[in-house]
Design a protein that fits this description.
Length: 131
């Protein structure tokens, strides 16, 4: 059984070191009282830092966003549909990614080079058996 972990993040990143330590102490002392963490135990405090960062201003393009949002909604509707209908999802997967079987998988010592090259020219697409 995989472990289920929960991470607690500070409300913002603009703490001084002393403010951060106080926040950590408060969170750890209040941990047993919080209902969402009653089935968890504290393991360790993890720190991270960003060594290299790059900020770029991205301007909002309302026309592009409106056009793209329509397409994203259509795609998301399909995702939700296929989550509910896994058999249809498997059929679509079979159509999009057909399995290919090659004739020349097993050659005997009696096979000539000409026979093997003729038989390996075209792959045979297998038809998936229906369940």
């Amino acid at each position: 059984m995989p472990f289920k972990c929960v991470y607690i993040y500070p409300p913002h990143l603009n703490f001084t070191l002393s403010q951060y330590r106080k926040w950590v102490t408060d969170e750890l002392s209040n941990l047993p009282d919080k209902e969402e963490f009653k089935n968890f135990k504290f393991d360790r405090l993890l720190y991270w830092k960003v060594k290299v960062a790059h900020n770029a201003c991205i301007n909002y393009d309302k026309k592009w966003f409106d056009n793209t949002l329509i397409r994203l909604r259509v795609v998301w509707k399909k995702v939700l549909h296929f989550r509910k209908n896994m058999k249809e999802a498997e059929q679509l997967k079979g159509k999009l990614f057909p399995k290919t079987i090659y004739n020349d998988a097993f050659l005997t010592s009696e096979s000539s080079e000409q026979e093997s090259s003729e038989s390996s020219q075209e792959p045979i697409k297998s038809k998936k058996a229906k369940n």
